[in-house]
Design brief:
With 342 residues, this protein is mainly alpha-helical. It is built from 14 helices and four strands. Strand 1 and strand 2 form a beta hairpin.
Amino acid sequence: MTEVERLATFVTRASYEALSTQACQVLKSHTLDSLGCAIGALAGPPIKLLREHLEEFGGRPLATMIGDGRTAPDRAAFYNSALIRYLDFNDSFLAKGETCHPSDNVGAVLTASEYAGTGGKEFLTAMAVAYQVQCRLSEVAPVRAKGFDHVTQGAYAAAAGVAKALGLDMPQTAHAIAISGTAFNALRVTRTGRLSHWKGLAYPNTAFSATHAAFLAKRGITGPLEIFEGNKGFKEVISGPFSIDWEREDLEVVRRTILKKFNAEIHSQTALEGVLELRARQRFQANEIDRVELGIFDVAFNIIGGGEEGDKFLVRTKEQADHSLPYMVAVALLDGEVGPAQ
């Protein structure tokens, strides 16, 4: 049995009864948080462009688009995932060497669950599977330092979650994960330098593709089952050696994920909280500040502080704003909050 087949066995055997009460509650709260993010993003400029794109090209109305309308399931997965992700306000998971947003999987799993006509318990189980796969791969097989984006692990997670929601059997699930994981290895340049719309659309695009892969596997299309350990596979080319004993995995990693307090990149949250507490306590005005000096940990500096992932002092777009620590600290001091309006 290959590693992806062992992963697929874990996916197909996962059950609602294996979820702890706390994990179930966290999944529910994170789903509601994701829907709130989606509703808040309905007027986003790239969302409007996606809507125009979907309306022009169409798709059989088999799945709901959040807000209004119906389209094909893979296209609905793309649109719904884009809504959840655009504001960059959805949840996060922190691992050594990697950060991800596991609720990026909600749009695809929700769409697949609707298509399959599954109930709430089945939806939550599929979500737990997607969270477990993405977060555990982020822990043991980080790829950021090698120039790849966390969306790379998401290709496995989204395919696993969608396959579970669709009720695919073990071979179909293995092929869905293999197809998705082989085809969608995303570059970290998505989040370095001058940020673009693709920062918020990279994972939705993978959700679209993973959903497509799962439906292909459902029909009998096969993928490379040696994707992890094979010649020129994921371990050899991208991640390096790692191991996960999928027979021993549970569905509890969701309990270690984080909801954001501020509409800002996850590594900025504590700094912003401290700045706002200082502002409230000292009651100073922004025009009284000569300069700001901030000590921060290295990952935050490298990603959002102007370190290895590029200058963060020139901010012209929403995508740049929520990934610029200097901007976010400044706007917190000016406005006393860091939300979508900032």
